[in-house]
Amino acid sequence: MESKIAEKLAALPIIQQLKDYQPLFWKNPDYNQDDPDLPFSKEYIFDAVARWERFAPYLAVAFPETAALHGVIESPLTKIPHMQQAWSKYNDYSLPGNLYIKQDNALPISGSIKSRGGIYEVLKFAEHVAMTEGDLTYMDDYSVLATPRYRKIFSHYGITAGSTGNLGLSIGIAAATFGFQTTIHMSHDARAWKKDKLRANGVNVIEHDGDCNFAVHQARKQAENDPHTYFIDDEGSKDLFLGYAVAAVRLQKQLVQQHILIDQDHPVFVYLPAGVGGSPGGVTFGLKQIIGANIHAIFAEPTHVPSVVLGMATGLNHDISVYDIGLDGLTQADGLAVCRPSVLAGRVMKTLLCGCATFADSEILKYVTLLADSENIKIEPSAAAGFAVIKPTSLALTNDYNLTNATHIVWSTGGDMVPPTDMQKFYEQGQSLLNSTAD
Fold it and tell me: 4-13, 100-109, 110-119: which has the minimum mean pLDDT?
């Protein structure tokens, strides 16, 4: 494998740019080609949609914050014209088209995109247990799962996962609410408040000195040694992936409601922060299956942890780590601090992903501040990654697409659960950086 990696690296000029921590845009040469080997189809997404709908009565009871939407977990699509002005001024570049933000930072329960995949996989496992150990049927009112009888059934089973933070929050809170014995293995860069939040919800948190991949490995080992513990695999779970894909069905409706055209003359670009690649990969799969050829996904990654672009550009995907090319894997975007992409990300994204772009950490902190000042929307640093890659994407694709009437959607992946003191610190860091730039 080492010789195979060395051979690939020597043949790719992009590797030196990555090794030098240089922001870049990588255009996927296989984009929009036919791929007969996709492991999923549109029907898988609709199966996941149906499961979310079955669980809506349960979610409305177990999580009162979802009651107003009748147990639906969804985030708003918000037009941000003031941020577009601030963005254009900062970048000295007039962004063509219109700028929106998909506010997964406001998703109920865990305040991040991970609510989509993490909670979904917990729901699917709970459904399986309730049907095999209890008497639940598909036609039942699933709010029955919130009763003491079912909590007792669930308490005989465990759920575990490894995480840098947000996935652990979504899985941990959801699983513990059902009554599962829940353990989350956290990497060294997971923020203290996320660990505290999990413990406050009755979750067993195990802290590790290693990175996210190490935490996932430890969770996997735990499940292998206990037949009653279910492991949720951030590196290769199909259920996580499909939980994220449901977002496309909801976004399709929001685009229609806001009269946003999507055709060859009105392309839509979606900017998704990427860590292991599972959540943006699932969303992208859904977008291409549900909305079609004129919506284009761009992954945004830190220059210090460009795991997906490294895996896809080399074709090695999960078989290569950022450490293999000498990168340190350190970033302020803790949710993106994953040194190796998921098993699914590169394989499924081979023809579905338009491209990847990398950014410096200082940029996302600036956008945290610009967004708060212009629109009073507060997000965590990793959630601002999309803003940092719009300009290089637009410049790289200006000859490929009609950008005049483009719609740009930055997918904000987290923020609502961040403690005010931490959020204020992010804001002040960004403000200081913006002031230094102005000087």
Answer: 4-13
Do 365 and 429 form a contact (C-beta atoms < 8 A)? yes
Output the six-digit token pair for 168: 């652990």
Q: DSSP letter string over 277-318?
A: SHHHHHHHHHHHHHT-TTEEEEEEEETT--HHHHHHHHT-GG
Tokens of 393: 């994407």
240 exposed, middle or buried (CB, 10 Å; 0-12, 13-18, 19+)? buried
CA separation for the pair 151, 147 (Å, rounded): 6
DSSP 324: G
Q: State whether the Cα torsion 320-324-327-333 is positive or negative.
A: positive
10 Å CB burial of residue 137 (0-12, 13-18, 19+) is exposed
* Residue 173 to residue 360: CA distance in whole angstroms: 32
* Amino acid identity, position 289: Q
The tokens of 385 are what?
A: 């990654």
Q: 356 in helix, strand or coil?
A: strand
Over residues 346-358, the mean pLDDT reads 95
How does pLDDT run across 222-255, given as a tens digit for each residue? 999 899 999 999 878 999 999 999 999 999 999 9
pLDDT band, very low/low/confident/very high, at 439 (cuts 50, 70, 90): low
pTM of the model: 0.95
pLDDT, tens digit, 9 for 90 and up, residues 257-312:
999 999 999 999 999 999 889 999 999 999 999 999 999 999 999 999 999 999 99
The reported pLDDT for the residue numbered 2 is 65
How many CB atoms sit inside 10 A of residue 5's CB? Answer: 16
Q: Yes or no: say if 434 and 364 are a contact pair by the CB < 8 Å rule.
A: no
3 contacts: CB under 8 Å, gap ≥ 6: none
Q: What is the dihedral of CA 16, 20, 23, 24, to 10 degrees?
A: 0
Distances (CA, A) of 406 to 75, 286, 391: 22, 20, 13
89-106, pLDDT tens digit by residue?
A: 999 999 999 999 999 999
Q: Shortest CA distance to 309 belongs to which of 278, 268, 260, 345?
A: 345
Neighbouring residues of 76: CB distance < 8 A, sequence distance ≥ 6: 102, 103, 106, 254
Is residue 184 classed as helix, strand or coil in its secondary structure?
A: strand
- 100: enclosing H helix or E strand: strand 98-103
Tokens of 305: 């942890």
